[in-house]
Amino acid sequence: MDSGSGLDPDTGNKSKGSGGGNGERKFGAFLKRVEPFLPKKDLNPRDLRSWAKKTGFVSDYSGETSTSTRSKFGDFDLQKGRDQIVPDPILGRNRPKRESEIEHVTGSELGSGSGPGSREEEKILNRNEATSETENVGGKINKDLENGFYYPGGGESLEDGEWPKPINVMKFGLRDNPGFVPLIYYGLQQYLSLAGSLVFIPLVIVPAMDGSDKDTAAVISTMLLLTGVSTILHSYFGTRLPLVQGSSFVYLAPALVIINSEEFRNLTEHKFRDIMRELQGAIIVGSLFQCILGFSGLMSLLLRFINPVVVAPTVAAVGLAFFSYGFPQAGTCVEISVPLILLLLISTLYLRGVSLFGHRLFRIYAVPLSALIVWAYAFFLTVGGAYEYRGCNDDIPSSNILINDCKKHVYTMKHCRTDASNAWRTASWVRIPYPFQWGFPNFHMRTSIIMIFVSLVASVDSVGTYHSASMLVNAKRPTRGIVSRGVALEGFCSLLAGIWGSGTGSTTLTENIHTINITKMASRRALAIGAMFLIVLSFLGKLGAILASIPQALAASVLCFIWALTVALGLSNLRYTQTASFRNITIVGVSLFLGLSIPAYFQQYQPLSSLILPSYYLPFGAASSGPFQTGIKQLDFAMNAVLSLNMVVTFLLAFVLDNTVPGSKGERGVYVWTQAEEMEMDPEMQADYALPRRISQFFCCRCC
Fold first, then answer.
1. Exposed/middle/buried for 83, CB within 10 Å: 0-12, 13-18, 19+?
2. Cα separation values, 323 from 256, 331, 591, 599, 654, Å
3. Helix and strand tally (H, E) in the chain?
4. What is the pTM for the complete model shown?
5. pLDDT confidence tier of residue 337, bands split at 50, 70 and 90
6. Any idea what the Cα angle at residue 523 is, between residues 521 and 524, rounded to 5°?
7. Where is composition skewed (Basic and acidic residues) in this entry (predicted)?
8. Which of helix, strand or coil describes residue 453?
9. Euclidean distance between CA atoms 621 and 625, whole angstroms
10. Helical H segments across 55-179, by residue range
């Protein structure tokens, strides 16, 4: 007899080729032949378990019984409500609720009174049996809980070959309020774990614009302010998922393309301000396009064509776009970069299970801890004279240095010394970022077209993040309208970034998924309180000065790890698809390969750039001299720039292939969003995603 099927072998063999109706008749005929279970006064729970196995019910270690997922005779769903979660009183954790559960029926229920088979004695026997079995698997359960999830049924595969879905264990849910002090702690923890993504982008773009150390400190303060404001807005008016909004790496590559265009290479005076104003204008136009995409409902239509096979290679290409910048920049000081990368890997992989004071410090604070340790190490190297060379002064511009060896040493000194920055001496103690602080934005069609494409890629990136975050916090999937609302708000936050002048647009940080997974904190209140602290810290000019003094080689080393993590998080979206499908692996492989190779083709058409730009900026200098030539300079610049961006080419290829190559929904892993009608009938979902009551009433009044 097949285990867990509850069917007679002969009957099962006869019905293999039958349809659903024939299966029902044979299944019903079989049930009539099953001997009824008669309660006994001296009932032993083990006899009940034996009977349950014979009739098709499988008992797990927790003392609960379940049916097989699907009858082999038809489409009988013997386990409805499988995904519902109820607390398990024995194990002290959640377990799936099974509607078809067998309760131990004793003689006392039939008026037989107390005795050996009474309910009290049976409860004791069941508790002892469940406790002993729990002790046997207790080590595995604890290990699963330490990793943030557990598998119902002990992780054993089901009868039909499927594996039980892991259930994430969150310390605090979306609407939980653990208290003011814990909210402060968990809120700051969330942003500390994302420190690399929040503050290192200015260390890349400001030096590329020939900005001063004071400018770097000002841009860092501006980014901290916009991150805090954008996160609060998203927590209350966006999707309301616990996601940090900030300057994204999606906007970093196009910013470098604009920065390294021929128009700005020969500028000497006000170069930083001129480039920043150009970036502001492009970001404002791109953000307006994103707002229209969300508020008009076009994003809801576009969601039908955006699936994991599209999102996975697109997000991965965002990280892969910087492979030519990462270690070539970090390699200027291998004595700093190599120890830092090794320390990051050791902290996140080998020490992830080490607990200090009840907290996984190495796993949660891997980036800030590793950066601080290596920063201190670099400080001792600087003080010890490791970067001092006779006759060389890093204050002299490299163009005025005649000795070649001295040029090389000065380059090393600027990238490795911890005292190379004068931001601490020039920055003020209090500085409040204000709109148009760099001047009024410049608007040009060529840069605006670039940012329109980039805002579309940023929206696709956010769609995958929304879906993954909702699964991670054990919430229902948002509706298409909620996703559109979140994308529209991201466009509004990017508009603020363009007005304030942060150099990049604002979007959901993909790395935030990893942070939620390791911190197990999904409270949006904690996120909002941490954002308030971020806003206050942005007013401290000296804090931005301290962060601006981080050596560029150290920052590039941290970014190598973060970009690699972005690639991994992007490819992890494929878990929703049939990863063994030849269709899927072909689409992803072709999209990624051509997404790297086609931009390389456009990047080779720059004979003069190799004489002017450093090697790690060459991939971002193809906009002015690419092969796309129509005679319209604005259009030529825009198309050469767009086709030299890895993420844009990868997205276009994956989007076209996934929506034209035949494949079932299960094979493609099509995102399943909640219907609006379901949300209206579900109070829990309304509490998770609906706008605050006063805001909803305001919009309702306006509509009336």
1. exposed
2. 14, 13, 17, 13, 21
3. 33, 8
4. 0.75
5. very high
6. 130
7. 72-85, 97-106
8. helix
9. 8
10. 119-146
